């Protein structure tokens, strides 16, 4: 708290008790306001009367500062709560997106599995002997696995042609 000197208005003042100067040992009688700049002194009740408005002003400022601090702390608490709520909401949204992504990945893997399986079966069918009762792989540059399957198929086609004719 800054109390200016009543004579020179310098802020370097001090208020203290001087028990050695007074026969009265009570506070109002031995109060001294002393300016370190000009040396001016005020003794007793006039010193307290001069200082009182500055004390009241300082108390008001202190109360206002406390109110501002409480309001600031309350606002910070609200901000923290909102930030935590946003963070938890973002986390839940993140979890939801992650779950959706996992679901899409599982569906993709299923489709991929069935597509590959169909491709393998198609390749296997293309790789098998053309005779319907045989499942052996065909020989290179032929659609039959052996001469026997080729002859069986030829006999079947001939039989079908005779039946039609």
Description:
By secondary structure, the protein is mainly alpha-helical. It has two domains: 13-124; 129-164, no CATH class. Helix content is 61%, strand content 8%. It has a three-stranded antiparallel beta sheet, with helices on one face. The protein is rod-shaped and about 145 Å long. The N and C termini lie far apart (127 Å). The mean pLDDT is 87.
Structure annotation, total helices: 2
Query: How many extended strands?
Result: 3
Radius of gyration, taken over Cα atoms and rounded to an integer in Å:
52 Å
Please tell me the overall pLDDT: 87
What's this model, at a glance?
The protein has helices at 45-127, 147-164; strands at residues 13-17, 31-35, 41-43. The protein is mainly α. The termini are far apart.
């Amino acid at each position: 708290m800054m109390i200016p000197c009543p004579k020179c208005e310098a802020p370097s003042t001090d208020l203290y008790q001087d028990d050695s100067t007074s026969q009265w040992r009570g506070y109002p009688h031995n109060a001294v306001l002393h300016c370190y700049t000009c040396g001016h002194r005020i003794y007793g009740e006039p010193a307290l009367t001069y200082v009182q408005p500055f004390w009241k002003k300082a108390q008001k400022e202190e109360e206002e500062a406390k109110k501002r601090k409480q309001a600031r702390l309350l606002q910070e608490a609200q901000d923290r709560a909102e930030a935590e709520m946003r963070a938890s909401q973002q986390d839940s949204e993140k979890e939801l997106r992650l779950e959706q992504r996992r679901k899409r990945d599982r569906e993709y893997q299923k489709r991929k599995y069935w597509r590959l399986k169909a491709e393998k079966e198609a390749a296997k069918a293309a790789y098998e002997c053309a005779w319907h009762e045989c499942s052996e792989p065909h020989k290179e540059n032929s659609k039959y696995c052996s001469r026997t399957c080729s002859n069986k198929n030829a006999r079947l086609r001939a039989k079908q042609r005779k039946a039609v004719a």
